[in-house]
Amino acid sequence: MTAVVGILNKQAVALAADSAVTIGGTNGRKIFNKANKVFTLSKQHPVGIMIYNSASFMATPWETIIKIYRNQLGERSFPTLKDYQTDFIGFLRSKNFYTTPEMQIAFLESFAWDIINSVITEVVGQNGELLNNPSAESRADFLEVMEEKFDNLISVWEAEDQCCVEFDDYTFEMFTTYSKVLFDRINQDRFEANGITLTEALIGKMKLSTYHILRAQVDVLSYTGLIFSGFGEKEIYPQLIPVNISMVVNDRLRFYVNENRVASIANDNNGAICPFAQTDVIDTILTGIDPSLDNIYLNNFEAIFKKYNEEILESIGDSNDLLKEQIENLNRAELVETFNRMNQEIKRKNYIEPLMSAVSSLSKDDLAEMAESLIYLTYLKRRITFAEESVGGPVDVAIISKGDGFVWIKRKYYFRPELNQHFFDNYFKP
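Above: the chain's sequence. Below: its structure in token form.
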């Protein structure tokens, strides 16, 4: 995991990221503190990019992809940051980073199996007794429960109306034809090999669930967050555009712009703090309360309110049936939501707005210091508690401004700079 943040005001945008990367293997997980997550997107223009979550795209490191794009971009520029983001996606589509059709199928198979396995895990957790005494009858019951779970999954995801750009016209029939080989392989290797015979109906529901989740704008499994930030030629204030991207399926790039997280500085929006990945510490500073504790308070309020009603009903007894009916029909969900809205308003007025007001007036060096401090505090919390230290290592910090362009404030190197002057001499050569 990781922690990255962008802080924007009318002067500049500060980008900061830790260096931790978690590698999973057959013997567990290991954390390294040498990863690069902040990059210049252009050598000449004020645009940069950060990455979080997966460090590679279809087995190709993002660092390699970004630097190839930067070389291809050369001295070209675009009117807006959105144009840079669009051009980068076009570049990604034009190159064969996803290599062979076999690799596309392999990634989709992993995607599909993770969905299927999550359902199996849920069924086993809730219906373990079906497996305690294996028999033809218990297996049939187990598959029946699985089918119900997939029905529920389908009903949830087919209602999702936000679709990834390149899958808008991708029909279930097209997906069925494309994925037949991989679902046959899953059936043979994962089920028939263990003496389990799936019905065609259940296989069909597995396919339909995978299809709906594949198309939806949702973070699943291994994906990368790409955060574009900086200035287009016609923009005087900085922008930030987060894009989520995961894989290529049937020559279609699965990506979407996270519109809810786009930050655009303008005359009516003077500052913004945009954390990504592990955001709990930064959210606590922003809102004045840890998000998990906030949820606990909300759940406790609902539980106490329910208990309060029950005690009132008990005290009334049979003396007033009409009053009992009115109390029982109270809309608790609406009252809990009102309580939540009141809390959100308090957080906005007392914490978020004052902090944003301060951010809007920060100088460039103060922006950089704040961005670095937010990442360091996230690391510090992991360091002094029993949580996994999945945020750590040196913090890379950069400032992007309209006049000065992309400026490194802190940057780690894997080599000694004083021994590699040629690296810096060659940096701006075409």
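DSSP finds 13 helices and 15 strands in the chain.
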